């Protein structure tokens, strides 16, 4: 059997999915974490599957995740539906519930966060609540696993018996009631042929769902009759069509909650959150606090905890490389094969792996911020400045994800309702510093800026975001004219972070980093080693200046001389970064034929602090990896626009890096 899991964003949907399946999907405390459906087998029921659908507030034809959820339920015909509802915010959550009940599928309502509800002194009459909605209601606490077995048993029972929700008429007699029933009668035969419940189809047609209208294959006469009914409803009730339907649903919800929900006098969690928000989301304190928090995270990551662990791992890798080199020498292995293993694999892969502790420590802090609910506040705080450049606060979610990896960040733009906002955000996201660039930043910052590494890291992150917003501002006044869509977002209460969620995220990031090290970066390292050790006739070389890599690097090096660096090895490292940004470091290790411990000394001879910063700025801004480019092409649905974006970003990176180096040179000439 197949069950669908649907609910609002931030209702605990992914946490429940993990409890049901035993999988370790990342749980986020801000909207947009689930951007595609995920599937998994239920624990103990290997033949039964649950599908985690994107979090939505209603089933409307406006955004891609709403369409995905609607189409899955309508056309994939799951055996039962689990609707998860946040018990602490029940009125808003039930709006989606009423729409799901209209879809006429066996449904169980999972009433989540009951621990918080009871802790606030509130209560719900579960039996009366269930009877009023006509579906089983199971109180649960997804984070603690309470009520999960009963939920599974009820869902299984409903699916086997095909017990449908009791038919409810949410609207009292009046204009809306007459309109819904009139439209239902007109489309009844069409809806039956498409296996779509007629009442659900009627409300969607009234709301203006053009996709569903086309699927029903209505003739012009029927469309005219429907429009006439809607206009009559609007005239009689004094509201437009969407407002009238929303008023109908909320009137039913209000009466239901009045009869079944007892509100506590004090919600301690909410009051605590409001006190904290006076500082963290204050008009004058929000941005300074955010920058201070990020500076602290970078300081502990790159100057204290992460740096110490990274140095320790680098020393271990170098010791292992020396041991392997000695063993291969004793075995009298072919010198070329020995060079491949030591100068290729150990120098390339080892130089990247040594930065694994930095990734883990950084994401530990970021995961804690996300789990507490602070990241959701950042989206709220950034709505006003983003609106000034033509975007809405919802664009901050892909931007925040971009600090992890550009690929899921681009995919997260599917949560944006406006196609204009979506394209602008896709083109903006690569300016965010993904974790793949951390090894490059960390290496250069430690060599050239010492104790100021955390400050340099913060400058690079802020610079990328600032320049990205500048490009968005220019785009909103040229190629992407128009208004941004409104941004409505629920701010969750502050909560203590779940260590399980934090550990899951750290494991996922570490595993992803190691997989990249031994797949994409490994292949890039072998390619760099091959190009470094053979000439155009594929003969082994004695002098690196004769290599294929040297020829390619020297061909492009003149382009980068105005930026302050002219060594061919630095140019080829940038080229290898197109496969994966971490490969820039591994490429430097291979081309300089040095160990990780000696690499900083080798790099120090090629740069001044100014030219090193110029190099970092170019790395920050030039085109992302091939995987990101492929994802961008898929989401933009345009090869030409993707090509223009990639070329434009490289040109923009060159111009900014040139500007930094030129301005820095002028300023230094006065000292």
Characterise the protein shown here.
- This protein has 3 domains: 2-161, Rossmann fold (3-Layer(aba) Sandwich); 175-239; 288-668, no CATH class.
- It is 63% helix and 6% strand.
- It has helices at 13-21, 64-75, 90-101, 114-119, 126-133, 148-161, 175-193, 198-207, 210-216, 220-237, 241-260, 268-280, 286-330, 335-353, 356-372, 374-388, 396-402, 406-411, 419-428, 438-448, 453-476, 499-517, 520-533, 548-560, 568-576, 583-591, 599-604, 609-621, 626-636, 639-668, and strands at 2-7, 38-42, 45-52, 80-86, 107-112, 123-124, 137-139, 261-262.
- A 6-stranded mixed sheet has the order 2-3-1-4-5-7, sandwiched between helices. Strands 6-8 form a two-stranded antiparallel sheet.
- The termini are far apart.
- 47% of the residues are buried.
- Residues 28-34 have low confidence and may be disordered.
């Amino acid at each position: 059997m197949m069950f669908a899991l649907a609910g609002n964003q931030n209702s605990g949907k992914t946490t429940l999915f993990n409890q049901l399946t035993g999988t370790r999907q990342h749980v986020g405390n801000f909207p947009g974490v689930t951007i595609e459906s995920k599937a998994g087998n239920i624990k103990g029921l290997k033949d039964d599957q649950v599908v985690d659908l994107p979090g939505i507030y209603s089933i409307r034809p406006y955004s891609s995740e709403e369409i995905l959820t609607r189409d899955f339920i309508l056309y994939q015909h799951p055996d039962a539906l689990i609707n998860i509802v946040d018990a602490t915010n029940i009125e808003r959550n039930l709006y989606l519930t009423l729409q799901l009940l209209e879809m006429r599928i066996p449904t169980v309502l999972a009433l989540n966060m009951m621990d918080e509800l009871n802790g606030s002194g509130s209560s719900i009459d579960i039996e009366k609540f269930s009877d009023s909605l006509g579906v089983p209601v199971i109180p649960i606490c997804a984070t603690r696993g309470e009520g999960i077995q009963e939920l599974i048993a009820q869902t299984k029972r409903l699916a086997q018996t095909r017990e449908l929700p009791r038919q409810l008429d949410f609207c009292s007699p009046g204009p809306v009631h007459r309109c819904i029933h009139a439209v239902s009668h007109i489309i009844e035969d069409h809806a039956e042929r498409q296996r779509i419940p007629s009442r659900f189809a009627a409300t969607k047609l009234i709301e203006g769902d053009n996709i569903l209208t086309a699927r029903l294959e209505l003739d012009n006469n029927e469309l005219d009759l429907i429009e006439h009914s809607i206009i009559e409803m609007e005239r009689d009730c004094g509201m437009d069509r969407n407002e009238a339907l929303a008023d109908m649903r909320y009137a039913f919800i209000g009466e239901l909650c009045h009869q079944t929900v007892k509100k506590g006098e004090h919600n301690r969690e909410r009051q605590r959150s409001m006190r904290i928000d006076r500082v963290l989301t204050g008009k004058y304190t929000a941005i300074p606090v955010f920058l201070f928090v990020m500076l602290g995270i970078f300081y502990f990551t790159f100057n204290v905890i992460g740096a110490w662990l990274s140095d320790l791992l680098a020393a271990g890798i170098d010791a292992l490389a020396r041991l392997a080199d000695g063993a291969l020498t004793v075995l009298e292995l072919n010198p070329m094969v020995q060079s491949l293993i030591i100068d290729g694999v150990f120098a390339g892969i080892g130089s990247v792996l040594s930065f694994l502790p930095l990734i883990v420590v950084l994401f530990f802090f970021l995961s804690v911020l996300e789990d507490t609910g602070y990241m959701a506040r950042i989206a709220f705080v950034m709505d006003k400045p983003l609106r000034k450049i033509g975007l809405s606060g919802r664009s901050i979610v892909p931007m925040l994800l971009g600090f992890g990896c550009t690929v899921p960040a681009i995919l997260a733009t599917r949560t944006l309702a406006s196609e204009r906002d979506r394209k602008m955000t896709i083109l903006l996201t690569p300016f965010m510093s993904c974790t793949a660039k951390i090894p490059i930043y960390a290496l250069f910052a430690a060599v050239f800026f010492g104790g100021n590494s955390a400050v340099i890291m913060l400058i690079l992150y802020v610079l990328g975001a600032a320049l990205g917003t500048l490009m968005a501002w220019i785009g909103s006044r040229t190629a992407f004219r128009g208004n941004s869509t409104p941004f409505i977002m629920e701010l969750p209460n502050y909560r203590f972070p779940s260590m399980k969620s934090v550990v899951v995220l750290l494991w996922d990031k570490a595993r992803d980093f190691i997989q990249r090290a031994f797949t994409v970066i490994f292949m890039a390292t072998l390619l760099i080693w091959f190009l470094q050790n053979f000439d155009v006739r594929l003969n082994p070389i004695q002098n690196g200046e004769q290599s294929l890599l040297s020829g390619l690097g020297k061909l492009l090096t003149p382009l980068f001389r105005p930026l302050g660096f002219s060594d061919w090895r630095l140019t080829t490292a940038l080229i290898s970064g197109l496969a994966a940004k971490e490969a820039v470091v591994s490429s430097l290790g291979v081309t300089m034929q040095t160990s990780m411990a000696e690499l900083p000394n080798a790099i120090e001879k090629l740069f001044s602090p100014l030219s090193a910063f110029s190099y970092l700025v170019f790395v920050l801004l030039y085109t992302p990896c091939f995987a990101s480019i492929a994802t961008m092409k898929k989401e933009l649905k345009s090869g030409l626009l993707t090509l223009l974006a990639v070329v434009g970003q490289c040109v923009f990176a060159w111009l900014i890096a040139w500007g930094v180096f030129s301005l820095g040179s002028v300023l230094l000439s006065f000292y």
